[in-house]
Amino acid sequence: MRFGHFDDEAREYVITTPRTPRPWINYLGTEELFGLVSHTGSGYTFYRDARFRRLTRYRYNSVPTDAGGRYFYIRDGNDFWTPGWAPVRRELDRYECRHGLSYTVITGERNGIRAEVLCFVPLGAAAEVHRVRLTNLSGRPRTLQLFSLAEFCLWNAWDDQTNYQRNLSIGEVEIDGSAIYHTTEYRERRSHFAVYAVNAPLAGFDTDRESFLGAWNGWSEPQAVVDGRSRNSVASGWSPIGSHQLAMDLAPGEERSCVFVLGYVENPADEKWERPGVVNKARARELLARFASDAQVDAALAELKAYWTVMLSSYRVATGDPRVDRMVNIWNPYNCMVTFNISRSASYFETGIGRGMGFRDSNQDLLGFVHLVPARARERILDIAATQLPDGSAYHQYQPLTKRGNNDIGSGFNDDPLWLIEGVAAYVEETGDLAILDESVPFDNDPAIAAPLFEHLKRSFHHVLANLGPHSLPLIGRADWNDCLNLNCFSETPDESFQTTGNRTGRSAESVFIAGLFVHAAPLYAALAETVGHAGEAVAAREHAGRMARTVLAHGWDGEWFLRAYDFFGNPVGSAACEEGQIFIEPQGFCVMAGIGVAEGQARKALDAVKARLATPHGIVLQQPAYTRYHVELGEISSYPPGYKENAGVFCHNNPWIIIAETVIGRGEHAFEYWRKLAPAFREEISEVHRLEPYAYAQMIAGRDAPRHGEAKNSWLTGAAAWNYVAITQHILGVRPELGGLRVHPCLPKELPEVTITRRCRGAEYRIAIRNRGDGGAPALRVNSTPIAGTLVPWAPPGTVVEIEVEV
Ligand code: GLC
Ligand code: GLC
Fold first, then answer.
1. 0.90 exceeded by the pTM?
2. How many CB atoms lie within 10 A of CB 519?
């Protein structure tokens, strides 16, 4: 069952009923100011940091759900309604929400009045624009009142939710014509404020929540709207809001639009005041003047659409299957960019107050957006690397505002350093920018101990070698990629963290996953070492990788699949000998991606075991059998009820490792089958089961042990976006940059017989036409009509077009 449809031409998902299973959201903003907007118009806005600079308030886990947002109430005689259906929830004659690339348009119709609300953040502006267009579709003149509503957050979102003894006394506003200024704390240390304005004269306004709502009402029936009359309230403490009242007479067929702007403004410390006690509004007025007319709004929206067109032109595909094309051309790269912008901070599952940027997460996210914004990827790499510690280990998270490592969580996740190699390699392969390896980058943000970026990679690599366990496999530390496999924690107290609590110091618990990642990263590292003249280091790295691969086959192979780990006591984890958790997905994926056991046959066996034991109609579960009780020696993984999260949920982040592994052994059918199971555009058909947005990846889909098998959770901000994109574009479609050229090595299923791809890279354009016989044979390439040996197409000079024909 669907709740809408894709409009590929417009690059929009069109939701046709407000009664989606859950709020289906979109993101506004591409630079500094961001908004989350659901299909009813709910959600919130923040400037750069969702915790410290939150403009509007939102109530997570509230009832009714999805409370707070940009609301426009239309009062028509004694009737009133909201175009997004909620919060008033009066039935609409027509409803539609179009979520596009960084904009959303919500249209509601009732009793012959159409209201269309367009929301977006223009490029180069710290403001959300809301254009409300009212049309009289009836044959008679109509008199309407339009009320806007935004509830201000008192900036620090955490404090805003907890510190009522202070906060209920500090709210302040100023009203200046049609502009409402939210100025709480501006009198003291803040030099920023918010403005909410409209380009039309007001019939009234409210800035005090209680005056607008009435003491006992919610957003569904504000007393001002019920009465058709704003109170002209001036907030003093309590809860400041911004609400404008506009009176409108519409002739039959007449259309009128008004532009609301919710902006964020900073003043230099010595220019805070216009006169004592009066905020300097000059910058705000400049901002408002940029979006004061319909024509300005149209131009800004066109500019935003063009920005996306250019960005998405770096990889375009036509496969004949619209679901594949819309994932690859539109929604998956969009998802990757949202994840880049927001990291893991603000979604409908991440509150924006909890987490910094993950070291491993950020490096992996990079794989999905490096070709879209290479310059920003470079900056991100240097920020991440600067939080690395001198011994090669890394802070697990860092704070986006300060770019410093987070001491609460610290380090000790032993996979972390290796992801830096993967991220840097992807960047250099995409751009050819070898100079980044010579950039001087601090350790632990201390410029006194800076070293070239290459040295950071070297310490990452050697950190693994310096931390091997009894089987010569890498020590796991607090956890590896699986944050919840805590083999040293032994936590028996509910209020402590599984990751950071009193870990035992024994050097015994080992990770086969890190071993696989090490063998995978080693050739990338070696190739980079060669380019900067460290040939000896390259030779050594390859030797270490060979040795580690042999160690995995000797001590990390269980007979039918790769083991997951050895626990603190030296017992195997993820072995047929275990009672629960006999086989895990992660080592099967990464060991095969690294090439371990491909020649010897273990790779195929491992992937067959995955198919037999872990594959479900909703994707590949993380492990089986699920843990049915808490295992203190394994940690958080066994804390989740069976089928959820790391305890045998379908973790969409690691499924692509199996997909890529299948292409390593040439099984395109299997790879595509797995990819399709997770791809939101394919799951759209079962939206009543999946329940989250059919245009964005979710972190997790409930596994087969869960009562709600197939239901997704934690959409939008997830490593699933980057890795699924890498799997389909670079391994199934098979086009990926390498140091020496563009690799074109498709591994396609029979159902994609003809595929064309346009890839822009390093200034040239590659037009690739693939004819796929589907027999799994090796691809044969012709480059500009001349056959070449192998599948590596040499880099062409910038500005040129290269025609590539591929027969598979
Ligand atoms: C979450 C974390 C990520 C981790 C994964 C598995 O997605 O952000 O760092 O690898 O869970 O535990
Ligand atoms: C990841 C996991 C989550 C775990 C958390 C701890 O986000 O997905 O289950 O609680 O890491 O850091």
1. yes
2. 24
